[in-house]
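Sorry to interrupt, but I need a hand with the structure work. I would like you to pick a protein and set down its sequence and fold. Please put the record directly below this note.
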Amino acid sequence: MSIQVFGQPVSRGIAIGRAVLVASSRVDVAHYFIDAPRVESEVDRLRHARDTVAAELKLLKHEMPTDAPAELPALLDVHLMLLHDDALTGATKNWIQSRHYNAEWALSAQLEVMARQFDEMEDEYLRERKADLEQVVERMLRALSKEEPLVPAAARTNLHAGEDPLVLVANDIAPADMLQFKGSVFTGFVTDVGGKTSHSAIVARSLDIPAVVGAREASRLVRQDDWVVIDGDAGVVVVDPSPIVLEEYRFRQRQSQLERARLHRLRHTPSVTLDGQSVELLANIELPVDAAVALDSGAVGIGLFRSEFLFMNRDGELPTEDEQFEAYRSVVEAMKGLPVTVRTVDIGADKPLDRMSVHELRHDHALNPALGLRAIRWSLSEPAMFRQQLRAILRASAFGKVRVLLPLIAHVSEVRMAREALTRARQQLIDAGVSFNDVELGAMIEVPAAALIMPTILRELDFVSIGTNDLIQYTLAIDRADEAVSHLYDPWHPAVLHLIGRAIADARRAGKHVSICGEMAGDVAFTELLLALGLRSFSMHPSQIAAVKQRVLRVDAERLAGKVGAVVDSEEPEREWKRVLVSSDALRLSEGAARPS
């Protein structure tokens, strides 16, 4: 019988496939596909881990004190029995051979299957053995983690795992893990937790795959290999759909693909409103390989290169200056003269570095990481690392137009310290005889304090970019990754709109370039409103550019500008704005009908 699970839609479209469950564990589990020649080596890793744990358990039993309770050696015997049970190691081996999962992933997948079987047992004693199973698997995972993976990080994507399409189901997916799946076989994903602007949702949109987050019970209700439909438009997950429901969703999937193809034809159309206002549509990217996608989507530049993703999945090692330089240069060259805005590393909150990184070692006890040492605060606290990144960005500027964007600015002093670090980085390159070009310095306006002191802060900057995700979070005191309060995360809140409108107006008055690079920029529900507020530069995921451009081409921005003030001042801006749009469309249609032929 089919089951429906409801969550929040975060990436549009329909995905249909067999479920791949990523079980949560107290041990970090790497998830990646291996190619056929490595299957037997991976099976050997699994076997070696089993033998290692068996030896550990036997040693514990042998060294147990004579006065130890009789239950303890019996418990170790149970663990040894589970360890050699074919239902665990044999079935795990099958996941490696049939799906090409790495050993850790295969082991956690089989744990999920067996844990459900234990939960369904009527005998209470047998049900309680699930805890023993979890302990055995955790020991094996720890044994595996002490080995070096046989598959290099660069080879962990673009591997296929069978005939059927696959969808990912998990309690949560870290941004770094999401990037491991970039370009892989997954056609969609669903998580129990998260909100529309959590970073797993943001990366899902950059992958351009349907996704639903905050589905709460999804990972408990879905079983490995179940057929699952992910409706990224409605925020619905259908588990084990009936043939009729499946066919209906397949039809909608085909319709969605046709609509995307139609919109894609707009990619080279100039982005100009009906009243002749030119609008800049830029792309947000996470990795250098995304630049080609941005160019193909019709982006006229990169408005946000999230450099922190270069720092992830590195086992605690920070990227060198040369590694960063090569990454930035490849993006600049790929954009063929179009501007590239590199945001300095925005580590912290829901984007931590690996556990053994400098940041984690020093700051892993922060009670509220969203308000702690993150983004520009962390960069300024690590001056050597910061200058290294700035030097890498400056070196890349020799190959095209580059801008530097500072995240989470709240004080003018932070901008001044960052500019001083940039000056020192320039001098170091001059002393070394390394060429570079001038770069513009900008700041993210994502803290209400920055929005409220815009005239002062603009005197120190060349441009600003409004980060609506954090601006909304901090204005409304809402953790945007927490589904328990996600219903309170409201981009339409009058206070939010006032801050955005004020920031845009202040920047334009000062003659400084202003854009929005948060999720509101790619949400077509806000396109007309932002244009009416005076915004002429949007930066979004490449997959959203065509839909936003379609809205831009149909808008008379000047006409709407006269009505936006009353909307922002109203108690319910969303309802009032919809009324304005309806009346504006009706007026335009009536004028068209009255115009002589």
The chain has three domains: 34-154, 157-262, 271-589.
